């Protein structure tokens, strides 16, 4: 399959590019800079220059492809205005890609986050909350799923709070960055809250499976570990950076503090059973041992 991909030079995207190429697909990838274009070409993808604001470029890329995966998203979590702008931009991107694929029966695979469900582990059947900080993102993704009735094989792969590789990425990566900046490896409250996690290479395999096999209008969870206690992450981070480990008020984690403090385990039992996805790469605490002092 010839696949148009956005976000192909990021932590997840670079893994998806390699996964697709290793399994016989070809990749046309949006490149927002010369450096991105060079890295994509070196990986074996064909770069197409443009930004997420260039909706005509996105539609042209989708028109050339037999399937589309959208991974690009702004991640300036320290700036609420920038985050809101990224969510608005993503909505426009998804609308443009979806419009190009109407009545084609081609796949459109998009990314979202696993939803928190108070008191229990969330599953693929749980709806994403449409209010709050990321509510706009959930509404955009819902619109993509509704394209199933218009001849688009749309599906969403929900990612856990930490997608990691070599000790980097996701909420655990943000904990590491905050620890370096503040001199304390902190955790909110008692640290017992759990975050789901997956290795980026395992997530990439699920994106490929969704592209190849997912029925229209379906939701999948890229979750290996249902929930890792935040205090356990902080302990590894503190040891690797030789920093004290202690509880920190949730305000110390910026705009994401309330989310950081939430217990939000998630399951992928349905995904694994239905698509035959089997995570096989190192789990989070083992991977965090790769953090460099």
From TrEMBL:
Entry protein name: SDR family oxidoreductase
One Gene Ontology cellular component annotation held by this UniProt entry: cytoplasm
GO molecular function, one term: aldehyde dehydrogenase (NAD+) activity
Ranges for domain NAD-dependent epimerase/dehydratase: 3-217
Domain of life: Bacteria
Lineage: Bacteria, Bacillati, Actinomycetota, Actinomycetes, Mycobacteriales
Gene3D superfamilies linked to this entry: NAD(P)-binding Rossmann-like Domain (3.40.50.720)
